[in-house]
Design brief:
Layout: E1 2-8, H1 13-28, E2 34-40, H2 45-51, E3 57-60, E4 63-67, H3 72-80
Protein name: Glutaredoxin family protein
C-alpha cells in the first residue's frame, strides 16, 4: 500500500484545493491502494520548521512529490506508476 501524506494547516485555501485533488485522484484508484494521512504544521514544530513556506506539501511514501499546487495528472501518474 502506498502512503500519501498531505501537510498543510487550518484555513489554508491552497491546502483545501490540494485536499480535493488528492481525494478525487485517490477515489479513482482501487480501494486500499493508497492510505492518505493529513498532518498540520500548526500541530508539529518540526513540520512547521521544514515546510511552513511550501504548504501544501504532498509526500508519497515519505518522499516529496510536490508542494504549493497539486497536479491531478502528475499525482495520478505517481500513484499508478
Amino acid at each position: 500500500m502506498t502512503t500519501l501524506t498531505l501537510i498543510g494547516k487550518p484555513d489554508c485555501h491552497l491546502c483545501d484545493v490540494a485536499r480535493e485533488v488528492v481525494e478525487t485522484v485517490v477515489a479513482e484508484l482501487p480501494e486500499d491502494a493508497v492510505d492518505v494521512e493529513e498532518l498540520s504544521i500548526a500541530d508539529d514544530p518540526a513540520l512547521y520548521a521544514m515546510w511552513w513556506e511550501k504548504i501544501p506539501v504532498v509526500l508519497i511514501d515519505g518522499e516529496l512529490h510536490g508542494h504549493w499546487r497539486v497536479s491531478p495528472d502528475r499525482l495520478r501518474s505517481a500513484l499508478t506508476g
